[in-house]
Amino acid sequence: KAGVTQTPRYLIKTRGQQVTLSCSPISGHRSVSWYQQTPGQGLQFLFEYFSETQRNKGNFPGRFSGRQFSNSRSEMNVSTLELGDSALYLCASSSTSGRNVYNEQFFGPGTRLTVL
Amino acid sequence: AQSVTQPDIHITVSEGASLELRCNYSYGATPYLFWYVQSPGQGLQLLLKYFSGDTLVQGIKGFEAEFKRSQSSFNLRKPSVHWSDAAEYFCAVGPYAGNMLTFGGGTRLMVKP
Could you read off the pLDDT of A39-90 as tens digits, one per residue? Predict the structure, then answer.
């Protein structure tokens, strides 16, 4: 079974631009979570989707948004990029919502975003 | 609010030596606890998890961790470190409001030959 895939793996943008990152979960998984990893702030939760519904959102500005499609693939978008948005963006998928039953989350390799 | 502290940012051990990475958590309910490993340029791989029951849990790659509720700790151990264990290790607690995990700051492990 293929793992979590994220595209693109590397991305360079300039301040003020917007960017869209994609995550394809493991087949059959309906939950996708996104995390931002930076040297200064560590791993921080961005948001989580389950069956196309955003279930939870971390403490990030509204420039960060996401969505999930009916095939469970998810995208996250960052508008008006700032230098501080440079980070590794990780997504994780799970077969459950985590509310009544928790199953392991599997992480993708991440998308390295550099903002110049 | 939940939080995780990993007091050691960097640790260097000699190959073949034992290893213990510390993790302290704060969580309002009965926690699920996790240890993940991240190699350079890679995502996170789950080493082991604690949900309930036996407080000593075994994981992959020869790692184990012990849950101590009285100390709010979940330390990771390995009796003999291999050079391939060099990586960054993250302790996490959750899930909270779904699949959300809260991670510690990480401990970077270096292995001396």
Answer: 989 999 999 999 999 998 999 999 999 999 999 999 999 999 999 999 999 9
A110 DSSP 8-state letter: -
Q: Assess A115–B contact: CB distance below 8 Å, yes or no.
A: no
Res. B2: pLDDT tops 90: no
Q: For residues A45 and A30, what is the distance between their CA atoms, to the nearest angstrom?
A: 18
Rounded to whole angstroms, the Cα distance separating B75 from A93 reads: 26
B contacts of A55 (beta carbons < 8 Å)? 97-99
Cis, bond preceding B40 (omega within 30 deg of 0): no
Question: Do the beta carbons of residue A66 and residue A47 sit within 8 Å?
Answer: yes
**Inter-chain touch A104–B49, beta carbons under 8 Å:** yes
Closest CB from A31, A94, A107 relative to B44 = A107
Q: For residues B89 and A82, what is the distance between their CA atoms, to the nearest angstrom?
A: 28
Does A110 contact chain B (CB < 8 Å)?
Answer: yes
What confidence category does residue A2 fall into, taking pLDDT thresholds of 50, 70 and 90? Answer: confident
